[in-house]
Amino acid sequence: MRVGIIGGGAAGLAAAYELTKRGHYAEVFERAPFLGGQASTFTVGGGQLERGYHHLFVSDVAITELIHELGLGDKLAWLESKVGLYHGGKIWSFSTPMDLLRFKPLSMLQRLRVGWWTFVLQKTKNWRKFEDVTARDWLVKHMGAQAYRVIWEPLLRGKFGDYYDQVSMTWIWGKIYLRVASRGKGLQKERLGYPMGSFGEVFDVLGERVSQQGGDVHISAGVNRILVEDNNATGLEVQLSDSEPESRNYDAVIATTPSYIFTRLVPDLPEDYREKLVNVQYLSAVLLILVMDRPLTDKYWISIADHDLPFVGIIEHTNMIDRSLYGGHHIVYLTNYPSRESELYQKSAEELMDELTPHLRRLNPDFERSWVLEYHHHKVDGAQPIIGTNYSERIPDHRTPIKNLYLANTTQIYPEDRGTNYSVRMGRQVARMVLEDAGEAVD
Question: Is residue 36 classed exposed, middle or buried when 0-12, 13-18 and 19+ CB atoms within 10 A define those classes?
Fold first, then answer.
């Protein structure tokens, strides 16, 4: 079989790997000049650093297995993380259940209530019971209005902006379920995984393996449209580097683009399927990455629960990952999730630096701008889909209404949230769908 794949991120490369591993031909087209999508890297201090912060949970078995398959298992380290919550001008430790009991912005009764319902969520496997209620309504009812206002609402606002009160409780359930799986038994702290050569190395090696298995992987290669004849996907119109557009024929096509891009590539989709695609809203990720000569805090991950800070998360990468990988420098991500129309999204790197860094003194009163040796600005479009209530009824099928045309993107990962692990799992699953539909027995 010949399969054309749009997108060289986790899902597209995983699909190509699965297909070529089974003896079929896969050809991947990635518009960017690098592989890995949201997990791609750039050079800092002689090492490779992700454009967007990345780590693995213990429950991320799909990508962990792939890393071992690629022969990179010896580079995968599992490290204890230090998590904090910034509230009321103070960083509170939030790594263990005991930290919750010490969280004084809530009364002891409120802390116990939050702890009890968090425990219930950890033990609940049936996510469907949370589908028809918003996170706001469920959390206020079960954990209380004060706990919602102090802990949950700022985080939902930061992650989903104006859509914060529309997000399904299933999303919160998934986050809690995942975090606990990464803790182990008792009151242990969370352990997170990181491939010490970077996630970029994982996807570069994955691309090489696809080529070794008989496929082809192209970067700086755009796809202008998906070719359809008699409701059957027959190929792609592609443009490699500066060459002229050309048509290439395939037996099947897998698209891993965001839904709003997919509708441009196939303008004649049936209305009911198209409706499922266009009704999904996305937020972008805006990241300012500081390369510093000293640490900012002692935490790896700090969630911001105060409305007046202009970022929602601080991920101090080198408080978990050895800074010697980056020339001894300290790496800090400042992150936010705005819409593309927002003022924050439109700002330049210099404007963001001027706006965001003065607020860092609230986390560390000694902070000086001179600590920052360099900074980098990255924007990722289509980073976070908005998942509302009863979303399972509106998920677009991987098998599109056009024969031999398949879609695999972050809106189809539900009930889990977007993540490299689930993209890898989805890419391999869709590859097997393609083969099953072609009549091949797949174990």
Answer: buried
313 and 245 inside one domain? no
Residues 203 and 68 in one domain: yes
- Between the CA of residue 314 and those of 231, 274, 301, 331, what are the distances in Å? 47, 37, 6, 10
Question: Does the predicted TM-score (pTM) go above 0.85?
Answer: yes
pLDDT digits (tens, 9 = 90+) for 316-327: 999 999 999 999
Find tokens 């033990």 and name the residue. 123
List the domain range (segments joined by +) for residue 170: 96-183
Domain presence at residue 17 = yes
The tens digit of pLDDT for each residue in 267-293 reads 889 999 999 999 888 888 899 999 999
State how far the Cα of 318 lies from the Cα of 417, in Å rounded to an integer. Answer: 25
Whether 215 maps to a domain, the answer reads yes
Handedness of CA 244, 248, 254, 259 (dihedral sign): positive
331 beta partners? 291
Residue 327 inside a domain? The answer is yes
- SS3 call for 50: strand
Q: How many domains does the chain have?
A: 3
Give the CATH number of the domain where residue 166 resides.
1.10.3110
415 vs 412: CA distance, rounded Å: 9
Partners of 128 in the β-ladder: none
84, 316 contact by CB (below 8 A): no
Structure tokens at 325: 């990988």
